[in-house]
Write a structure and sequence with these properties.
- The structure is a single chain.
- By secondary structure, this protein is an all-alpha fold.
- The chain has helices at 6-30, 35-44, 46-49, 55-94, 108-135, 141-152, 154-173, 180-186.
- Helix 5 (108-135) packs across helix 6 and helix 5 (108-135) packs antiparallel against helix 7.
- The chain is elongated.
């Protein structure tokens, strides 16, 4: 059975933790702590309404609420970017491959596994690129708007990937790769 090196396992768990932080902070900023939600909550408060704040003052307050939490998103993005680069280099150097989803010789299960890996790496690369465009204000306003829309799609694809990942682990544990979970956690069993 396949064993996982310390670096392989470390990168896996860095991705897991980093993606959890990215998803949580992104979800909060888009849904529960969005500009609209915070502004509406402030406008419903009679004491705040009596202050007659202009839009710029409201925007400043909203950002003061969002920014400390969102810094975690940015830090996690840097960690994921570095881990992604190391992971790709590690795969190239070690010759680690995932099943080719386009080969006629690959089983249906392996095709699904290969497509999931391929999709994950492509989507992470897209998230890194779109996040960089937004963070460093690269390109035109239309590019920034496209990047923002694309970047926010992670709120949908990430949970789907996590479900597929756990389903794949469950299938592996109950078929031909028993012990894969303990090997990914502790190495050799």
């Amino acid at each position: 059975m396949k064993t996982y090196t310390v670096l392989h396992r470390l990168l896996h768990w860095i991705f897991a933790l980093g993606m959890l932080v990215l998803f949580t902070t992104g979800f909060l900023r888009i849904v529960w702590m969005s500009k609209t939600v915070i502004s509406e909550a402030m406008n419903k408060n009679p004491q705040i309404q009596n202050l007659n704040l202009d839009k710029q003052s409201l925007r400043t307050i909203v950002h003061s609420v969002q920014d400390p939490m969102f810094e975690w998103h940015v830090y996690a993005a840097y960690v994921i970017t570095i881990a992604f680069i190391i992971r790709i280099a590690y795969m190239i150097v070690k010759g680690i491959k995932f099943p080719n989803p386009f080969s006629k010789l690959t089983s249906t299960k392996e095709k699904l596994q290969g497509l999931t890996y391929l999709g994950f790496y492509v989507l992470v690369a897209v998230q890194i690129m779109t996040g960089s465009i937004l963070k460093f204000e690269i390109g035109s306003e239309s590019l920034s708007n496209l990047a923002e829309t694309t970047h926010k799609l992670a709120v949908y694809w990430m949970p789907i990937f996590v479900i597929l990942h756990f389903a794949g682990v469950a299938i592996s544990e109950n078929t031909n790769r028993k012990g894969i979970t303990s090997k990914m956690i502790g190495g050799e069993s």
